[in-house]
Write a sequence for this structure.
């Protein structure tokens, strides 16, 4: 199929783009990399009257560390930019590895972090990564801007708190402490596919093996990235072992609200969530894997 006819705008500055979005009576849809929106338009699942192409706005691209010590990325920064950035690799080794399994190279070269976050696919990588890393998202409109934490940005499947006249312009990541360890696991039928279930584990581990802080996020199996606060709290202040992890996973299995669709049943996804969390914990704490064996 072909998309319905639409008007095409390509602003040259952020101010010009925000001015266009301020016309709340117009059916305007921003387009970043277009890797999700264009196929949806071709299938007529989306039919905006106007496309606002952000590709010429250079101020929305790039990665830097600001004066407050946060890593700041423009919303038009591509997956590939994160994959190959020396700054990101030094401060956030989780992110380049995560990007390696996002779709395929041509898509990573065009798809953007802002487009992925605004699209809010429950199986997408960037929504879960931003929530796990406690990112702060800057939402701009003409004459104003507001900051929203990533775990408050998503409302459900393909749903966010973005208003029609707002644009996601920047993503801020707090830098990691030196003792942070991480695990990233996701299950997909083929390499590059969206995950049926995934888990991200971040742990701050003291020299004696005690977990001082933990954050665990699952995606793919849920309607939006889900923080497992109880599981994380069960690890904090302790030196985890395999039996402790299994006991905590028993509690989590019944508390996570897992979705079902044509790709996988609820029961199948519940088991996947358990396995992905266990593997991510073992990746962060290799001693757990040796115990499990």
């Amino acid at each position: 199929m072909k998309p319905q006819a639409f008007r095409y705008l390509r602003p040259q500055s952020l101010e010009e783009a925000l001015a266009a979005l301020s016309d709340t009576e117009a059916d305007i849809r921003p387009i970043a990399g277009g890797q999700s929106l264009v196929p949806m338009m071709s299938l007529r699942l989306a039919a905006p009257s106007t496309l606002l192409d952000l590709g010429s706005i250079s101020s929305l691209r790039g990665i830097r560390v600001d004066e407050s010590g946060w890593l700041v990325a423009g919303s038009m920064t591509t997956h590939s930019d994160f994959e190959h950035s020396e700054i990101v690799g030094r401060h956030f080794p989780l992110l380049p590895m995560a990007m390696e399994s996002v779709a395929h190279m041509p898509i990573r070269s065009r798809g953007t972090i802002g487009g992925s976050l605004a699209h809010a696919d429950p199986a997408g990588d960037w929504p879960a990564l931003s929530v796990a890393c406690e990112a702060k998202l800057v939402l701009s409109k003409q004459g104003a801007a507001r900051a929203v934490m990533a775990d408050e940005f998503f409302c459900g499947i393909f749903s966010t708190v973005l208003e029609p006249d707002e644009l996601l312009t920047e993503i801020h990541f707090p830098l990691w402490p030196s003792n942070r360890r991480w695990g990233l696991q996701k299950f997909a039928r083929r390499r590059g596919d969206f995950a049926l279930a995934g888990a991200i584990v971040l742990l701050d581990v003291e020299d004696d093996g005690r977990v001082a802080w933990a954050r665990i996020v699952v995606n793919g199996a849920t309607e939006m990235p889900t923080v497992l606060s109880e599981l994380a709290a069960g690890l904090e202040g302790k030196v985890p072992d395999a039996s402790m992890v299994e006991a905590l996973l028993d509690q989590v299995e019944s508390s996570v609200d897992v979705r079902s669709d044509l790709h996988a049943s609820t029961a199948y996804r519940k088991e996947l969530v358990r396995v992905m969390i266990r593997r991510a914990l073992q990746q962060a704490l290799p001693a757990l894997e040796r115990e499990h064996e």
In short: The first strand starts at residue 7 and ends at 9. Residues 27 and 48 are 6 Å apart (CA to CA).
